[in-house]
Design goal:
With 348 residues, the protein is of the alpha/beta class. Helix content is 22%, strand content 24%. The protein contains 6 helices and 17 strands. A hairpin with an 8-residue loop joins β4 and β5 (121-125). α1 (34-45) runs parallel beside α2 (85-98) and α1 runs parallel beside α6. The longest helix has 26 residues, at 322-347. Bound molecules: NADPH dihydro-nicotinamide-adenine-dinucleotide phosphate (NDP). NADPH dihydro-nicotinamide-adenine-dinucleotide phosphate is lined by residues 146, 178-184, 186, 202-204, 208, 270-272, 320.
Length: 348
């Protein structure tokens, strides 16, 4: 369904650093997690020339595979009985590629959205610039950091935000998982596969996580001989290091006393923020926490732009499930299709 590209009224000088000849797509999907890949299955299967920018591995922003790569066990995604998040994402990725979606490992750095159907959207990535008639934003969310001394310095040298990626490095060691939500509880239970001792440090005296895993964590904590302990109401103040790698944390305990915990690894699992900063100045509208705002009954983003849709964790702060992200992203793909078949075709 690819046409010869319509001309853009966006001046070339708007993107001076991105010099390579632009490629034009019917749809560029920014973000290669479950939402982006699901949208890509639909747009590519519909015959639209589709590019998925899946991000890069340099940071935890726009990471290829997205949040599913951080998930150890998936058993509630319909049609996928049980397995690692990475296995599920590999299947969805293959499915998108089989329908002709092109996937590039590259991070969108800035975008300029069109405000008229005959304009093309501009997506800048590394040294390349892509143009698209429609864009679907599925960049997800990024792991929050504690912001305490030592955390950033020793990231990758004992500090991690991905137990499923890095857990194996801590075989036979002692680790702490900071947080009390579903991610922290899942990560802490997962780390029992590797570590000889696991501590979970929620900052409150209750877990935010309420599911079966949370109950399992509390039961394990109460078992005297388990290798799993919850240190309730703990606030980490510093990540400590010895010989250039993590040696422990200093935390304020439930009695407001400072204590040290000797550790080989620290997993920070305190929630995520939407990965939307690259959209600054694009015409996208955000709420007070940086989530993309869409129109009330549509995936079209709010504001004056045309042909831009969004789904997944960059939009949704309520459900945040793989299946809800995938479902909403498919709605975005169908709305992009309707847009491409009507707005751009009739008027340009
Ligand atoms: P959440 O926002 O649910 O939880 C964040 C946790 O981190 C809370 O316990 C919070 O404490 C704590 N926290 C936040 N900031 C700090 C800080 N500065 N210092 C110490 N602790 C801090 O994030 P999650 O990533 O756990 O989950 C995100 C969403 O994804 C949720 O909706 C969750 O249900 C969902 N999810 C579902 C899964 C599943 O169904 N299997 C698996 C993983 C995630 P406090 O509670 O005191 O605010």
């Amino acid at each position: 369904m690819t046409d010869t590209a319509t001309t853009s009224n966006i001046p070339e000088e708007a993107t001076p650093k991105y010099t390579q000849v632009m490629e034009t797509y019917d749809v560029v999907i920014v973000g290669g997690g479950v939402a982006g890949l699901s949208a890509g299955i639909y747009t590519a299967r519909d015959g639209f020339k589709t590019l998925i920018l899946e991000g890069d591995f340099e940071s935890n922003v726009q990471m290829p595979g997205g949040a599913l790569l951080l998930t150890s066990d998936i058993e509630n995604f319909p049609g996928f009985l049980h397995g690692e998040g990475s296995e599920l994402i590999a299947v969805i990725r293959t499915q998108a590629e089989n329908f002709g979606a092109e996937i590039k490992t590259a991070k969108a750095e800035s975008v300029i959205f069109a405000t008229e159907p005959c304009e093309l959207h501009v997506i800048n990535s590394g040294s390349k610039t892509y143009r698209a008639k429609a864009v679907i934003l599925t960049t997800g969310a990024i792991a929050r950091q504690l912001g305490v001394p030592g955390e950033a310095e020793y990231y990758g040298r004992g500090v991690s935000s991905c137990a499923t990626c890095d857990g194996d490095f801590f075989k036979g060691g002692t680790v702490a998982v900071i947080g009390g939500g579903d991610t922290a509880v899942e990560d802490a239970l997962y780390m029992r596969r590797f570590a000889k001792q696991v501590y979970l440090l929620p900052r409150g005296n209750d877990l935010r996580a309420k599911g079966p895993e949370a109950r399992e964590a509390v039961i394990l904590d109460e078992e005297p001989d388990s290798n799993f302990d919850i240190l309730w109401s703990s606030t980490v103040e510093t990540v400590n290091a010895l010989e250039n790698k993590v040696a422990g944390v200093t935390y304020r305990d439930a009695n407001d006393q400072l204590s040290n915990l000797d550790l080989d690894g620290v997993f920070v699992a305190i929630g995520r923020d939407p990965a939307t900063s690259f959209l600054s100045g694009s015409g996208a509208v955000f709420d007070s926490e940086g989530y993309i705002v869409t129109e009330p009954t549509s995936t079209k983003i709010a504001g004056d732009t045309v042909g831009v849709f969004a789904a997944g964790d960059a939009v949704d702060k309520v459900f945040r499930q793989a299946i809800t992200s995938a479902g909403r992203a498919v709605e975005a793909a169908l709305e992009a299709r309707a847009y491409l078949l009507t707005a751009t075709r009739k008027k340009c």
